[in-house]
Amino acid sequence: MTSLKQWAVAAVLGLLALAGLALPWYSSRTLDTELKAFAEASRKGDLVVHKLTHEAGLFKSSGTIEFQLRDSCEAAANQDPSSFSVSYSVSHLPSTRGVMQFEWTLLPQGNAAAALEKVIGQGKKLGGTGALGYSGLVKAEMDVPEMNFNNEGVNFQITASKGSLTADTKAAQFIWNLSSFVARGKGDALDMKGLSLNMDLKDRNLGTGTIALGVDGISTASVSIQGLLVRSETTEDKDRLSSKVTESVKVLKVMGQSLNDLVLEASIGGLHAPSVRSLVEIGKASCGFRNMTADESQKVRKAVETLLTSGMSIGIPALKGSGEGGQVSASLMLELMAASDGKIALEKYLRSSGQLTVTGTLLNPSQIDMALTSGFAEKVPGGVKAAYSYQDGLLKISDKTLDAGMVKNALSQVDKAIEDFLHPKAAPARAPAEEEMVEEEVE
């Protein structure tokens, strides 16, 4: 019985040893395969893998990837691409962080190396650590050292900062924080405190997700800003894509004036997502639609037509702020209804509305009386409000119906221009007599 127990223990230990060797072997083999596939897929584009040197090991691998930054839309002979390399070291021993852990260092080359050394200081490097989780999620951290340098008479002082990246095959999240950025020189100064960037993308290719850039405070020789936040959000619901960008400032002081709670919100919604994807893909492949095939050109026209006939909205839902003299709020929206007959007709399907409200003493009494007398504004508590709407060929300003002939004519001209783009007329074929005449002249 004792012998059987010993054999059982030995067998279990043997299996554990095999498993302990199998995991690093699998990790090393997978890394080797993925790096080769990445290098092969990156032979074209703006960021090109120029050379991959990889030394695979059972418990540890290392290597260097040499990159080149170039413009894929320009001829190679006309470019002087920037080069840099990334050296890495990978441990294949599994841990609580994941199946592998890695360290990396960025090494610029040529003029870029001298420029980076000037910025971050001699002997300092950019690098970080990371891990590949058991679910396939990559997590990486980066530390940027403190920077003190002078460029063309301007002194820069930038505190050390930290960044982190989390990504899988589709999504990515990037977080970066910087406590202070100061620039002084040439009779001016810029001081920014509490900078932060947070990107949370659900689909990197389509750009869905949120991006937020915040600054606690900005101060120059003439302007002071507190609480700046720029936030964008792009969402996809079924086959519809919507995006909203909001800029807000808590306090803005300029030229002796103080403005509070400033907000600007812009949005575009209801876009046909498959058409947007098609335009993005063709735009990338054709260098911004400059070098398209006939099939790609036709796909672009079809995508634009679908976007314009399936409905969308665009505008500024909110624009507001307040000061010592009062408050201002405004909005402006354009809505293109879905075309029931599948034909583009802005005069028929376009709607628009907007309003402007001013309160307090921002307008003097004579200006208020003039606005009210014109009939294009109405009195509201503490101020005046003007509004307009255009729908079904009718133009109204503060419930006053106006002649919309000029608007209809303009929309008709736009319809014609869109139709000419979507369905260009073929060049007329030459008559046989003209062809014979050309041949005789050549002879």
Structural notes for this entry:
By secondary structure, this protein is α+β, with helices and mostly antiparallel strands. The protein has a domain of 113 residues. Helix content is 28%, strand content 48%. The protein has a 22-stranded antiparallel beta sheet that branches. Helix 3 packs antiparallel against helix 4. The chain starts with a helix and ends with a helix. About 2% of the residues have low confidence.
Keywords:
22-stranded antiparallel sheet, 443 residues, 22 strands, single chain, alpha+beta, 28% helix, 48% strand
What's the Cα radius of gyration?
A: 31 Å
Count of beta strands = 22
Query: Spans with pLDDT under 50 lasting ≥5 residues?
Result: 9-18
User: Kindly, what is the distance between the CA atoms of the first and last residues, rounded to a whole number of angstroms?
Assistant: 109 Å
Total helices: the number is: 8
Can you write the helix and strand succession as a string? Answer: HEEEEHEEEEEEEEEEEHHEEHEHEEEEHH
Q: Estimate the helix proportion, in percent.
A: 25-40%
Structural class: alpha+beta
Gross geometry: globular
Largest sheet: 22 strands, antiparallel
Please report which band the strand proportion falls in: under 5%, 5-15%, 15-25%, 25-35%, 35-45% or over 45%.
Answer: over 45%
